Amino acid sequence: MPISEQFIDKSITELNVLIQLEKDVGISVLARLVNLFIDELVTMANQLDTAINNADIIKIREIMHVLKNSAALYGAAPLAALATQLHDSPPPTTEENLHAALVIKHNLDKTRDAYQIMSKSIAI
């Protein structure tokens, strides 16, 4: 596989998902898709910051809906699990929702950083 395992943070990324994606679409398309995912993570991080600052629980839930599916598609299982949990079983209070969103925002940033490192290592 052209993605060197040394550049994959296995606490963030499920390698088997990326391997299957590469088999399905090829390495050059995979490289473009990973970069699109990174861009999407940047956009969602900005939207999540705004939603947290505005205590907009509905917007946070909308972001989680997109994030849970995108993260799963690209093998970011821990991020997908957190987003799924907040989307499907939100806490009862606004304060708890905002705290959970902050935790997810931190994980989103870690995921973005890990995928940026990985994207630079993809041999095309």
UniProtKB/TrEMBL annotation:
The keyword Phosphoprotein applies. GO terms for biological process: phosphorelay signal transduction system. PROSITE patterns: HPT. Keywords: Phosphoprotein, Two-component regulatory system. InterPro entries: HPT_dom_sf, Sig_transdc_His_kin_Hpt_dom. One of its GO terms (molecular function) is protein kinase activity. The modification Phosphohistidine is found at residue 65. It comes from the Bacteria. SUPFAM superfamilies: Histidine-containing phosphotransfer domain, HPT domain (SSF47226). Residues 26-124 form the HPt domain. The keyword DNA-binding does not apply. This is Hpt domain-containing protein.
